[in-house]
């Protein structure tokens, strides 16, 4: 990694879990425990009961707003400053990578802290209501995240694929390796000749592709890895 001119990293929910952000399927507590998250994260659910979906995402947004970037987020931001070309591809919607200082971030699944008009898909500031209404067209506002059955943000996957194919080192951090199309990126990187490094407590489908599989918490392993790669001498 010390000599690499291009590095890309793919991150998943395991990174944010270390900041206390519940993973998507774990975000069901108390009032929400009787709901299947996959039944709340669809366009159909929003059409059926927009108030319920809006309030669930408002609750999740509050959890994210209280969270702070952890050492893994900061180590990736540090790595970006040390290599000529760096891309951070994330499946997370919490914005913690940007808050940690990462600049070239590709958010495959959107950002829960942003709000858009459900009709025009343009950014809007939420007002009163559950959900609030678009001041321009009157359509309900929604979180700017990718729901099941929806396409990824325009250009996001193309940019992620380009980063995977052009890097020399590809880090796969805290992701299960089963959610497509992001799960195909390590294979793209390996096929283009990149060194694939997995950082995860458990083996995943990415493990057979990895030249190195580092077992443990990203918040412990990534700072050590970056420090070792760029230590004096």
From TrEMBL:
NAD(+) binds at residues 91-94, 174-176, 200-202, 218. This is NAD-dependent protein deacylase. GO terms for molecular function: histone deacetylase activity, NAD-dependent; NAD+ binding; protein-malonyllysine demalonylase activity; protein-succinyllysine desuccinylase activity; zinc ion binding. It comes from Rubrobacter xylanophilus (strain DSM 9941 / JCM 11954 / NBRC 16129 / PRD-1). NCBIfam families: PRK00481.1-3 (NF001753). InterPro entries: DHS-like_NAD/FAD-binding_dom, NAD-dep_sirtuin_deacylases, Sirtuin, Sirtuin_cat_small_dom_sf, Sirtuin_class_III, Ssirtuin_cat_dom. PROSITE patterns: SIRTUIN (PS50305). It is an enzyme of class 2 (transferase). The active site is at residue 109. The gene is cobB.
């Amino acid at each position: 990694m010390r000599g690499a001119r291009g590095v890309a990293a793919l991150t998943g929910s395991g990174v944010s879990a270390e900041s206390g952000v519940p993973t998507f399927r774990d975000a069901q507590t108390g009032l929400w425990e009787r709901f299947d998250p996959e039944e709340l994260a669809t366009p159909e659910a929003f059409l059926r009961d927009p108030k319920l979906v809006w309030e669930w995402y408002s609750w999740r947004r509050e959890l994210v707003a209280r969270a702070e970037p952890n050492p893994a987020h900061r180590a990736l931001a540090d790595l970006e400053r040390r290599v000529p070309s760096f891309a951070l591809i994330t499946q997370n919607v919490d914005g913690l990578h940007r808050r940690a200082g990462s600049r070239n971030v590709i958010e495959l699944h959107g950002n829960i802290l942003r709000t858009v008009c459900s009709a025009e898909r343009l950014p809007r500031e939420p007002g009163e209501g559950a959900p609030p209404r678009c001041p321009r067209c009157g359509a309900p506002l929604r979180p700017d995240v990718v729901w099941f059955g929806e396409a990824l943000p325009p250009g996001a996957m193309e940019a992620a694929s380009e980063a995977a194919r052009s890097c020399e080192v590809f880090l796969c951090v805290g992701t299960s390796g089963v959610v497509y199309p992001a799960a195909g990126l390590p294979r793209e990187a390996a096929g283009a000749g990149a060194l694939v490094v997995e950082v995860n407590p458990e083996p995943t489908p990415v493990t057979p592709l990895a030249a190195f599989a580092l077992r443990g918490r990203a918040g412990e392993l990534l700072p050590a890895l970056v420090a070792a790669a760029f230590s004096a001498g």
